[in-house]
Structure formats: structure tokens, C-alpha cells
């Protein structure tokens, strides 16, 4: 009769702190799909397909994360969206 020994290993997990922020775009009843799409292409450098998908998500879900990155990179992009009359914030 043999016995199997179970060994429990201590594993060190290093988590990288992420300082990533997000631009969240909110739905409104004022702006057209075309305006939202063009604004996302201009301000966030989206492809036309990506901008269209985000506009649809915003329309049906009420909000959508449209860009992720460092705060300093997102601030001017969010300002462009706000200047275009869209509702957005950095979270």
C-alpha cells in the first residue's frame, strides 16, 4: 500500500496596478448617429465600424466606454467630444 503525498505550494502573485482611465460616452436625445460616429472617428481615432458599434451601444445601453488610457491622453479627447456637444466623462 502506497501513499501519495500532496504538496501545497505558495505562489506569489504580483498584481500590476493599472492607472487606466476610461472615456464613457452617454446617450442623449439630441445628437444624430452620424454626428456621434464622426465625433468618435475624429476625437478617439476610431475606425468607422468601431464608431458605429459604439454609437449603437450608447443608444441601446445608455452608455459605452469609447477609449481607455492614461488620464493625460484622454483629457483632450474627452474635451473634443464635449465641444462636439456629446455627453462624456473620464472615469
UniProtKB/TrEMBL annotation:
Question: Which part of the chain is the Adaptor protein ClpS core domain?
Answer: 17-83
- One GO BP annotation of this record: protein catabolic process
Q: Which InterPro entries match?
A: ClpS_core, Ribosomal_bL12_C/ClpS-like
Q: Which residues form a coiled coil?
A: none
This protein is called Adaptor protein ClpS core domain-containing protein
Please report the organism this UniProt entry assigns to the protein: Aequorivita sublithincola (strain DSM 14238 / LMG 21431 / ACAM 643 / 9-3)
Amino acid at each position: 500500500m502506497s501513499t501519495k503525498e500532496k504538496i501545497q505550494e505558495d505562489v506569489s502573485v504580483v498584481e500590476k496596478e493599472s492607472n487606466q482611465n476610461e472615456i464613457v460616452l452617454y446617450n442623449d436625445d439630441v445628437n444624430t448617429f452620424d454626428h456621434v460616429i464622426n465625433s468618435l472617428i475624429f476625437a478617439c481615432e476610431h475606425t468607422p465600424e468601431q464608431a458605429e458599434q459604439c454609437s449603437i451601444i450608447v443608444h441601446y445601453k445608455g452608455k459605452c466606454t469609447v477609449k481607455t488610457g492614461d488620464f493625460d491622453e484622454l483629457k483632450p479627447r474627452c474635451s473634443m467630444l464635449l465641444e462636439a456637444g456629446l455627453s462624456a466623462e473620464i472615469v
